[in-house]
Amino acid sequence: MSPLASSEVAVLDGVNGSLATLPDFTTDEYKDAYSRINAIVIEGEKEAYDNYISLGTLVPDNAAELKKLAVMEMKHMRGFTACGKNLGVTADMPFAKKFFSKLHGNFQKALAEEKLTTCLLIQAILIEAFAISAYNVYIRVADPFAKKITEGVVKDEYLHLNYGQEWLKSNLEGCKQELIQANKENLPLIKSMLDEVAKDAEVMQMDREELMEEFMIAYQDTLVEIGLDNREIARMALAAVV
Predict the structure, then answer these.
(1) pLDDT tens readout for residues 63-112
(2) If we measure between CA atoms, which residue out of 117, 100, 137, 140 comes closest to residue 217?
(3) Is 153 helix (H, G, I), strand (E, B) or coil?
(4) In angstroms, rounded to a whole number, what is the distance separating the alpha carbons of residues 142 and 41?
(5) What is the 3-state secondary structure (H, E, C) of 159-212?
(6) DSSP assignment, residue 27?
(7) Which of 186, 185, 182, 51 is CA-nearest to residue 118?
(8) What share of the chain is helix, strand, coil (3-state, %, to 5)?
(9) Could you tell me the CA-to-CA distances from 94 to 41, 68, 195 in Å, in that order?
(10) CB within 8 Å of 64: residues ≥ 6 apart
């Protein structure tokens, strides 16, 4: 696939009348920032695949359903890899692996301890809510090829979020304390991860404050659906700013 030329961007996006609001996808500055952001989404989808397969070992009765979710994540990874190639960008995978290292370590520790609630919070709630909110912000400023790919990905991610949400909702009475503790340990990581790529996101015309706001709205909406009350949700949300 040949890299997308700036003239092609102009023609393709001009159909939607939003050309003036889009970044120049051909500049070195944009491609440098994109090399890290693209790597993050590729690595995130790869780790999601691994995590859903691992979750199947903790919930054997749901292993087939979790395998289907995992396969979706692998499809997403291939799609986002194509997005980088379309812009002639090589994803900075070493950066992405380091970027996810703390969440990855926490998931693996919880998996070894068979803490299903913690694993679900990390992958099916925190990461999925973060991905959905970030993808929704990105779609508005993406190049036409990546926009189409990302719109398809978002539809799938809601299914993943829903899986974790429904399990935690059904088992809330027995898992609430672990859920609160896992939130305390892992929610702050989302904020620090966002801070780490704020400059790159800005180059791509994604505002850090908007990204955080969208994530917190999605996350708190999910906690409501799980069945936590307003006071509990407020206390959990404080972990993002303390």
Answers:
(1) 999 998 899 999 999 999 999 999 999 999 999 999 999 999 999 999 99
(2) 137
(3) helix
(4) 14
(5) HHHHHHHHHHHHCHHHHHHHHHHHHHHHHHHHHHHHHHCHHHHHHCCCCHHHHH
(6) S
(7) 182
(8) 85, 0, 15
(9) 13, 28, 18
(10) 56
> In this structure, which amino acid lies at residue 154?
V
**What pLDDT is recorded for position 11?**
32
* Cα distances (Å, whole numbers) of residue 47 to 71, 81, 101: 12, 14, 10
In a 13 Å sphere around the CA of 70, the CA atoms on its Cβ side amount to 15
At 166-197, the pLDDT tens digits run 899 999 999 999 999 999 999 999 999 999 99
Domain annotation for the chain: domains and CATH numbers: 25-240 (1.20.1260.10)
Tell me what the pLDDT averaged over the chain comes to: 89
- Rounded CA-CA distance 65/126 in Å is 20
Q: Which residues contact 48 (CB under 8 A, 6 or more apart)?
A: 70, 73, 76, 123, 127, 160
Phi–psi pair at 112, nearest 5 degrees: -65, -30
Do 117 and 168 form a contact (C-beta atoms < 8 A)? yes
Distance CA 135, CA 128 (A): 10
Helices 144-170 and 6-14 sit at what angle, rounded to 10 degrees?
70
